[in-house]
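Note to self: the last two entries modelled the partners one at a time, which told us nothing about the interface. This time every component goes in together.
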Amino acid sequence: MEYLALIYVDDNSWAALSESEQQAIFQEYRQVTDAFRSAGVYIDGRPLEGPANATSLRVREGKTALTDGPFAETKEHLGGFYLFRCADLDEALKYAGKIPGARYGTIEVRPVMSM
Amino acid sequence: MSAREAIERAFRADAARAIASLARALGDLDAAEDAVQEAFLVALERFADGPLPANPAGWIFTAARNRAIDRIRRERVGQAKLERLAALDAIAPADAEDDDAVIPDDRLRLIFACCHPALAPDVRVALTLRALAGLSTEAIAAAFLVPVTTMAQRLVRAKRKIRTARIPFDVPREGELRDRLDAVLTVVYLIFNEGYGTPARSAAPVDLCAEGLRLATLLAKLLPDEPEVLGLHALLLLTDARREARTDADGDLVLLDAQDRTRWDRGAILHGLSVLTRALRADALGPYQLQAAIAAEHARAASIEETDWAAIVGWYDRLLAYDDSPVVALNRAVAVGMARGPGDGLAVIDALAQDERLAQYHLLHASRAGLLRRLGRHAEAHAAYERARRFARHAGDRRFLEERLAAHRP
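The predicted structure of the combined assembly is written out below.
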């Protein structure tokens, strides 16, 4: 069985931390990633860029509508994910628009942080 | 003219081209702007007392690119750093003399990045004014009545998103071009309209009409085969031609029927008409061409009476297919009133008043009042003006309607 662990954070509480506290948390992430790896459970994990860099996409009646910012509805729930490797946002949006969920839900496209 | 002004003038147009080329190479609008700004400061220092360089475009480009290279060299080592240096190395200054360059102008790519639908609509306008028109953040903030810090923050956030989410600096592919072009044309139209809606007496810090017209001219040069691009260019030329006649000596608004048509700019009208003719030849109508066609009917007519109102109704009928907004429907009703008589116009307006979106629209009641007055139904006209005044939100509109009320006591 595979499980996806989603990390929800509040930008403000992160920003309230000092530089050294943030560094300590980064260090801790590296340590737990290593621990997951040696436990044999690790498949993949990646930090995302913040919601300010998100674009939400919906396809209705064949027309694609984009909005700046993250997905904000609470009624719908996270149903799955795809990880794409694309040259730029336009390419990512093109493929995101082909996801069936785009026609009845919303696809939030968020850049993965480059490390 | 001070040395600073002379330098600013010489470099302003070229700055946008340099920003465009650097932004594309770096995928980073902010870094490109910084580099060009630094180069500009160097220019101020170097050319304050002496002659300007023979080729300001080439000078600012090279100086800005060198700044960008220096800055990247100071960054931490990494693959991305080498890629960016290589990208900067590969670009050359656009030849400012060569207007018919086959190579697409980087400014076109920059417009598409600034007006990308993944950015919020209001920030597209601000980014375009900043990056392409070269307006300062302060000037943009003042033009849109928001605090400078708010505008600065919006711009910073948008530029960060362009870089982080990798919004491309590219002209969209054929299949997507029309949709994306719509977003670009909307931005240019909004910029112009924002300026046009501002009465002349409020000392606006920037002439947004001129900026909008400049951008439309640039787009028409870069995409000369797109009928809607030409349509927008024609529309702005024809609308701007009436600007002088739109306000009286006190700076108050003068409506079309009362404008002194000798104050219309004939040169701009002829230019607009010829651009529109070129657009219509492609036989691919769109909302900007249709609005330009309506503006052209007015521009060609010597007076309200001599206007071809039947033709205008025809253009509005077609415009409604693209834009069924209340404003278009109302303008069509007014045109019907002119073409077929106030009775017919009134029938159309009364039908529109059933629409919730229009029932409280002050211009509907003001137009209705005008038609009732022409029908000699003065008491009803007065009541309609009263209603119009009640729904008017802007002080200027209310003042105008109060004058009408005073002039037309039953």
